[in-house]
Amino acid sequence: MQLGYVTAILPEANLQQVFQTAAEIGYDCVEVMCWPLGKATRRYAGITHIDVHSLDDATVESIATLQQDSGVSISGLGYYPNALSPDRSEAELAVEHIRAVIVAARRLGIGTMNTFIGRDWTKHVDDNWPRFLETWKPIIELAEQHDVRVGIENCPMYFTNDEWPGGKNLAHSPAIWQRMFDDIPSDHFGSITIPHTWSFSTSITLHRWQNSPINSFTSMPRTSASIGPDWTGSAFWQTPTSGIRRNCRGWATSTGDSSLPR
User: Fold this and answer.
1) 92: three-class secondary structure by DSSP
2) Cα separation of 223 and 196, whole Å?
């Protein structure tokens, strides 16, 4: 198990400072944010520690040197938009950049990128499903071609009352994860387990969520007493930090978001 953090928590730092901070704390890895250059639309968005559209041989070499000199590795590249937004132009830009981050992960020799599935929050899960398949099958095919694993975060991304109960991320419950992985079966398609997001809902204790067949790439070691009111299925881990079940190297990162319930 390796521990690290998501670089979104250091929005003003450059990439060298990100690695220096991780090394000083004693972390092993970082998940590096790769948003398109531009203005942030929400907290932790719009942060670009690696501009995937400006990668050249010199930049790739310098990033490798940063990892070697600091002793801190890159666990994955992160970009968390809404690829299923009801605003089609927003969704198209998101999909285009997700694909660019996948290609960049391959070029950097990292092998993992993490993101959201997205959701049209005005529609039911079943009404989102055809578009989910249409959007994500080609993305996962690209990931397979480049041998890059795509990890999907489970945060519901629920901000305002008009987004209740689904939020802006379709992949918010084990039942939906299982359906996703059944419909797009791939060793390059998995989930990022983030226990602290489960504390948005309460009723089912963690010990019931064991021995999952679902792909899991990472686990953030935050504990939560309960998860989800009506969810079905199994979790990815048996203890809060054992977290790596299948197809992964064994590392964990945390956003360090003090605004979320513990």
Assistant:
1) helix
2) 6
Q: What secondary structure letter does DSSP report for 82?
A: -
- What integer pLDDT is reported at residue 155 of this predicted model? 76
Residue with tokens 């009723």: 203
Answer whether 0.70 is exceeded by the pTM: yes
Q: Is the peptide bond before 165 cis (omega within 30 degrees of 0)?
A: yes
Residue percentage of the chain with pLDDT more than 90:
53
Count of C-beta atoms within a 10 Å radius of residue 196: 18
Confidence of residue 234 (pLDDT cuts 50, 70, 90): very low
Q: Yes or no: say if 233 and 154 are a contact pair by the CB < 8 Å rule.
A: no
Cα–Cα distance measured from residue 16 to residue 214, given in angstroms and rounded to the nearest whole number: 35
Residues 188 and 177: their CA atoms lie apart, in Å, by 14
